[in-house]
Amino acid sequence: MKRITSFEQYTTEYKKSIDTPEKFWSEQAEEFVWKKKWDKVLDWNFDEPDVKWFQGGKLNITENCLDRHLKSGKGEQVAILWEPNHPEAEVRKITYKELHLEVCRFANVLKRNGAKKGDRICIYMPMIPELAIAVLACARIGAIHSVIFGGFSFKSLADRIQDADCTIVVTADGAFRGTKDIQLKGIVDEALEICPSIKKAIVYKHIHADINMKNERDVWWHDEIKFVSSECEAETMDSEDPLFILYTSGSTGKPKGVVHSTAGYMVSTDYTFRNVFQYNDGEVFWCTADVGWITGHSYLVYGPLLCGATSLMFEGIPTFPDAGRFWQVIDKHKVNIFYTAPTAIRSLEAMGLDFVKPYKLDSLRVLGSVGEPINEEAWHWYNDNIGKNRCPIVDTYWQTETGAIMISPLAGITKTKPGFATFPLPGVQPVLLDEKGVELNGNGVEGRLCYKFPWPSIIRTTYGNHERCKEAYFATFKGYYFTGDGCKRDEDGYYRITGRVDDVIKVSGHLLGTAEVENAINEHPDIVESAVVGFPHDIKGWGIYAFVICDNERKDEDNLKREIIQTVTKYMGAIAKPDKIQIVKGLPKTRSGKIMRRILRKIAENDLSNLGDTSTLLDPSVVEEIKAGAL
Ligand code: PRX
Fold first, then answer.
1. How many angstroms separate the alpha carbon of residue 450 from the centre of ligand 1?
2. Which of 177, 186, 516, 543 would disulfide-bridge 537, Cβ 3.0–4.6 Å?
3. Predicted confidence (pLDDT) per residue in 574-598, tens digit
4. How far is the C-alpha of 145 from the C-alpha of 106, rounded, in Å?
5. Boundaries of CATH 3.30.300.30 in the chain?
6. Is residue 598 within 8 Å of residue 607, measured between CB atoms?
């Protein structure tokens, strides 16, 4: 496997990728199996936006993830190593050959149930190998997968199914999460009541829950599989055909369906996986993210499989049966590369070293972090106690929209600094802009992080609404892709992400739109209006602070708060539960009716001394009342 092996080489490759991007990326793309080679490497225009990579090329990504490895003699190697929620339950080891077979079979099941190229298929499943099989089966037949995180509840699921007009949903009877059984099928049933586009639900039996199967609509995975052959030719896809949709939160209440295309996504995920983690053949790679998020798509499924790696998939949670579970799994499977989120690190740090001590952790070679800024303390704890000061940490910065890692050290090659994502990967051209959109040159500057040139796995559109893609990413600063993040470039040219500068909050690494959480809160019949902001939280990075106006005089505040939490859990999912709820009589609004979130943010952060100018408010006295009741 070709990869960068020294910092000097990184510098040369980086320069090459900037001076001659088309040459650079076409060399990377040569490595793959193409049904037809591309005619043109790149066409782009950020104003539309319109970006096309490897135009005219024909391929199927699953031939590169699976068939190619069978041909090169990797058939018997484990592709997916599955560790169940219950430590005593059986581990599953699925070789490349077996995975190929299962993917082909399930691809035929999809076809048998009416799926065709271009259809959208919703996948709402536990973290079991069948989730990866379903994803790859969609790609095999050219259907566009839309994986919805299993922690989302019925309304979030329904919104996303409706937005993409999905025709099939692939699900399971339920999921095991620690001591809990999650009734996934029940949630699907509720969602499907308002999703007429769904014609079929294919259900995998996993927890043996008692569920309802609706005649005509619902079929069992294990029954369907009996009717089909295990051969399925890979559909011919154009480079720019959409591969998948993945929803992410934005500043409006409606989530955005980020669309990724086939060839560019393949090239970027493969390149970044190999180089960032410095993967060696035969190593066990463990990404703890759920496949419902981009990290799971790119570094549990596609990146590792493209590189012929062994990818560990874990169904459970870090604290079951106890807070040593991650470390036990690392020893049990001799994990070499471990990739997780700062929130997980902080929460395990808080549980104490007694949970780490029983484990050797000597198989580890590289550690990774993703999803939010990693604070120095957590970085050191990770480095000292898990990596034992001998494993490089790659702090990988990227987004759902970028498809692949953008700014990151290369393991063992880039000199790291705690809290810094360090340098852009080859092909990535970051710039920092001031508020007016002027590029800040040189080192020792801080601004808004943008990219001025496309990379292969850049977002192509937001499903069904191209204008929204333009508005959200390409309109703030003309000619640039805007990340929504603040960033510092220090005196040595190292990049450090400082966090979001828009109306989304990173809670435990999950991006949540404040408007989406507000909509869920407002579903409570007694709530008239709400405003949600983030506040710094020791474990989660950011917590959710909700200011709510109640329309009748409820005296039982504690009950009301509990009900609000239940409402949010029901409509959106437990990840969006507010940490603090303050009942208020009014919200600080401008004369035009806009909520001044800046003031609420300061109150939530307990920074009451400097609330800025409140004179433009319709009723400045509400601020005093809110301050007095601040939690
Ligand atoms: O704010 C940045 C933060 O996560 C956002 C992207 O979230 P999402 O699309 O859910 O993708 C997460 C996994 C790639 C970014 O805009 N973020 C991600 N990685 C880092 C980070 N912030 C700081 N450091 C990181 N390494």
1. 14
2. 543
3. 999 999 999 999 999 988 888 888 8
4. 14
5. 504-628
6. no
For ligand 1, atom 13, the nearest C-alpha belongs to 371
**CA distance from start to end of the chain:** 54
CA of 270 to the centre of ligand 1 (A): 19
Q: What distance in Å separates the CA atoms of residue 441 and residue 431, rounded to the nearest whole number?
A: 8
Q: What angle do CA 551, 552, 557 make, to 5 degrees?
A: 100
Residue in 297, 367, 382, 398 to alter for ligand 1 test, most ligand atoms within 8 A of Cβ: 398
Instruction: State the distance from the centre of ligand 1 to the C-alpha of 471, rounded, in angstroms.
Output: 20
User: What pLDDT digit, counting tens, does each position of 384-435 carry?
Assistant: 999 999 999 999 999 999 999 999 999 999 999 999 999 999 999 999 999 9
Distance separating alpha carbons of residues 272 and 299, to the nearest angstrom: 9
Please tell me the residue having the least CA distance from ligand 1 atom 2.
Answer: 372
Residue 628 CA to its chain's centroid (Å): 38
Pocket mutation for ligand 1, best pick of 245, 293, 339, 506 (most atoms within 8 Å of C-beta): 506
Place of tokens 């004369």: 591
Q: How far is CA 328 from CA 96, 331, 338, 386, 462, in A?
A: 26, 5, 13, 12, 40
Q: Which residues have a Cβ under 8 Å from the Cβ of 356 and sit 6 or more positions away? A: 324, 327, 348, 385, 386
**Atom number of ligand 1 nearest to Cα 369:** 26
> What per-residue confidence (pLDDT) applies to 551?
86
**What's this model's pTM, rounded to 2 decimal places?**
0.95
Distance 328 CA to ligand 1 centre (A): 27
**Of 31, 288, 47, 291, the residue nearest 148 (C-alpha):** 291
Residue ID of nearest Cα to ligand 1 atom 21: 372
Question: What topology does CATH give the domain 504-628?
Answer: GMP Synthetase; Chain A, domain 3 (3.30.300)
What's the whole-number average pLDDT of the chain? 96
Residues enclosing ligand 1, CB less than 6 A? 248, 294-295, 370-373, 395-400, 421, 483-485, 497, 500, 506, 511
pLDDT tens-place string over residues 505-537: 999 999 999 999 999 999 999 999 999 999 999
